[in-house]
Amino acid sequence: MTKWQCPFCGGLGKPTDEHVWAKWLRQTQGARKLLQDQNGQRMPLEWSSMQINEEGRYESSSERQRDWATLLPHVTVKVCKDCNNGWMSELERRAQSIIGPLVLEGRRIWLGADEQMALAQWAIKVFMAYALTLGPLDNPFPESAYGNLIEGRLPAGCRIWLAHFDSRFAQVGLAIKATALLKSFDPIRDQNNAALGYLAAGGLVFLLVLVPEALEELGAAMSPPMAAENGTAFLISQPTGLIALTHPALDEGDMALVMSWLESMRLVRMPAAEGLTPADFELLQGLFEGGADPAAIRTLVPEGLDPAFLEQAANHEHDTMAEASRYREAGDLIGAGLLLTHQGRQHFQGGDFEGASRLLIAAIESPGSGLDRDAEAAYRVGQCF
């Protein structure tokens, strides 16, 4: 039996319960209301994994780990006693001294560069602790990041924003939307490497952007929606000046934008491997890494590939090319281009990606198709590759 190791320091010390959402935050108004008449109900915690079934297709399964709390303030993870009572306790003490006056008493606070960085370290500690409940494949933080945090180093490719909301959803909350971005990905062995997240505590909301270090520019482009508005969201992981927080600058409508922003992670992720063969998934991944629109891939292949269509794909492609030639010979150049485009989309939907590529290339190159003059239409066709 493998000995338990602390996920942060790797030590073999005695495991203790670390509250993901700090116990001192239970004194905030929102937490008191949430916890009223609650006695720590629990539910099963399951981790999902992927395997290949007897039909040679990816199939997800779940493995029960242990029971965990249904309410965020009661959720705990196992860490060693030294981490819990040492650097983690110091991060909590520092965070409470900085934001406690605002979230517990409603008093104005000032955040200099040191305070901002301390809060960024505290927030990422919360996110990383919570990620441990997601399972080893769904956790977007690499193992090395846990040890680095002990020394105060944030994960590579990580950005933490802070905003102040007047919203019921900004009182008690924590979520991580994770995926794998732009790399060869094995659904069985590889873990996620990117995420958007939010941590809410007494009206303050910490927003997480995590991408692989090589995609720092993408991380900047994925900033939360209020980041561009002066004085409403602050990049505390890269402090640039003094921050004053008194009255919330954002409301329920802005919080709805945050929730939509979290869900936007699905727009850049690979389609799920569920139901696909490894060969199918490799084809999709090639399109994805080649720059194809992930949303288009998911829309066109919502239920996986169609084996019946694939059996007839070669003959169907040949017949389409011949029909397009007859259109051109008859002088209907636009009709030929439209036919090739439509049938190319049909092949993509059925899973014949190579045939779809040939048909769509023929459509673009078809004289008089109009795609050479309609940049927008050509771009839409190009997104299918």
Would you give an account of this structure?
Helix 10 (307-329) packs antiparallel against helix 11 (333-350), helix 10 packs parallel to helix 12 and helix 11 (333-350) runs antiparallel to helix 12. Helices cover 41% and strands 19% of the residues. The chain is an alpha+beta fold and 385 residues long. It folds into two domains: 15-29 and 70-270, no CATH class; 307-383. It has helices spanning 29-35, 81-85, 87-105, 113-131, 143-150, 216-221, 252-263, 278-289, 294-300, 307-329, 333-350, 353-365, 375-382, and strands spanning 15-19, 42-52, 58-69, 76-80, 109-111, 158-164, 172-179, 194-201, 204-210, 233-235, 243-245. It contains 13 helices and eleven strands. The strands form four sheets. A five-stranded antiparallel sheet has the order 7-8-9-6-10, with helices on both faces. Strands 1-4 form a two-stranded antiparallel sheet. It has a two-stranded antiparallel sheet with strand order 2-3. A hairpin with a 2-residue loop joins strand 8 (194-201) and strand 9 (204-210).
Notable characteristics:
385 residues, alpha+beta, 2 domains, 5-stranded antiparallel beta sheet, two-stranded antiparallel ribbon, 13 helices, 11 strands, elongated, disordered C terminus
Proportion of residues in extended strands: 15-25%
* Main sheet strand line-up: 7-8-9-6-10
Q: Report, as a whole number of angstroms, the end-to-end distance.
A: 48 Å
Described by the principal axes of the CA atoms, the overall outline is elongated
The pLDDT mean sits at 81
Structural class: alpha+beta
Q: Give the count of helical stretches.
A: 13
Nearest-angstrom radius of gyration?
A: 25 Å
Largest sheet: 5 strands, antiparallel
* Helix content class: 40-55%
Task: Give the total of domains.
Answer: 2
| Total E-strand runs | 11
H and E string: EHEEEHHEHHEEEEHEEHHHHHHH
**Low-pLDDT runs:** 369-385
